[in-house]
Amino acid sequence: MDNFHIMTKPIGPICNLDCTYCFYLEKEQLYGDESSFKMKEDLLESYIRQYIRSQASPVVTFAWQGGEPTLLGVPFFERVMQLQAKHCGGKRISNSLQTNATLLDDKWGEFLAKNSFLVGVSVDGPPELHDAYRVDKGGQPSLHKVLRGLEVLKRHGVEFNTLTVVNRKNSEHPLEVYRFLKEIGSQYLQFIPIVEEIAPEPDQSGLRLLKPYARKDTVVSEWSVEPLQFGIFLQTIFDEWVRNDVAKIFVNLFDVALESWLGMEQSLCVFKKQCGAALAMEHNGDLYSCDHFVYPDNKLGNILQQPLATLANLPQQVRFGKAKETSLPQECIQCDVRFACNGECPKHRFLKTSTGEPGLNYLCAGYKHFFHHIDPYMQFMANELRMQRAPANVMAWARKQTAEVGTESV
């Protein structure tokens, strides 16, 4: 791969929150004997140098995640900026930071604005929905601190988007979630379904959340979104968006769906035919196949022992990426919305098809419901783009369809 992306965990799984559904907190068990999870200076410089050199693109994007990366403080990221400038080699560097926003203050705001960081903020909806699962180490609500952090970003003019985990509770209230996100000033929305299998007993690494493809007897967690409800959640928000907010509010799943209807390769890995280009690196330089596959047998190696580019292109990783397409069950291969879904994320493929074949995506019913529902609107927008007209014209068309249906029912 000439271009691959890395989700960098400079403080590993360490976080100041204790979100019920967080799949990454338990990764601390993989490094339980370590006294510090802060990425060391020599590793940080080696990573920055190697990552920049490995990218064929003139623009190199670093993604800093956790855990909670702001626990490292502004000085750590000031050093990041110095090292990027030292090793950029004429390339343009951009940075994104995924955060729960609870620790952001004016010092952070000044730094993020000065260095043009794109900040992703985790928000699950209004208080009764966000605070149902997103609590601190003492079990206390966190939304008021998140909103305070958002105000810091707005005050300093920092570009941000919101990431909403769609779970068992907030999936029942799609419009409340959508309208709340708009109210707090988000114009770029990401919706991520949470689906976790829980093993009866921890494995030898101390992990309870089951590795994808394990094919063992498990229970889906009580916070996991239900399949059809996820599709209804997306459909309900889409119906409001397509009539009122196209070109004003940007929803990642809707944008990627339009790519599918245009026949383009999807920009989001979960909907691509193959994956493997989005890797995860832990605080000590261990590189894993994917953020959702941080398990011992998906460890590719350590970048201080083998070159980053070599690890990213190992036969093991190539097989991992291709398996997304080659392991599809026959029911998926024949599906009429395969062009938009491509089986979605391998992490969620733990059901059996109607014929008993393994590998069906847990969210299949939801995606089918959603993609079938949006088909006429996507066809309209795709045609507008082909005719070099604005896809936002779909809003008037959608409202007209609604009015005509209403007239027929009178």
Summarize the structure.
This protein is α/β, with parallel strands linked by helices and 410 residues long. 38% of the residues lie in helices and 14% in strands.
The biggest beta sheet is recorded as: 10 strands, mixed
Stretches with pLDDT under 50, minimum 5 residues: none
Helical percentage: 25-40%
**Helix-strand topology string:** EHEHEHEHHEHEEEHEHEEEHHHHEEHH
Radius of gyration, in angstroms, nearest whole number = 21 Å
* Oligomerization status of the protein chains: single chain
Measured by DSSP, the beta-strand proportion falls in: 5-15%
- Count of extended strands: 14
SSE-based structural type: alpha/beta
Tally of contiguous helical segments = 14
Shape: globular
Mean pLDDT: 94
| Span of the ends, CA to CA | 58 Å
Which strand order does the major sheet show?
9-6-5-4-3-2-1-10-11-12
Question: Strands, helices and their partners?
Answer:
Blueprint: E1 5-8, H1 41-54, E2 59-64, H2 74-87, E3 92-99, H3 106-114, E4 118-122, H4 127-130, H5 143-155, E5 160-166, H6 174-183, E6 188-193, E7 197-198, E8 219-220, H7 227-244, E9 250-251, H8 252-261, E10 278-281, E11 286-288, E12 299-302, H9 308-312, H10 315-326, H11 330-333, H12 338-341, E13 351-352, E14 358-360, H13 364-386, H14 394-409
Parallel strand pairs: 1-2, 1-10, 2-3, 3-4, 4-5, 5-6, 6-9
Antiparallel strand pairs: 7-8, 10-11, 11-12, 13-14
Helix pairs in contact: 1-2, 7-13, 7-14, 8-13
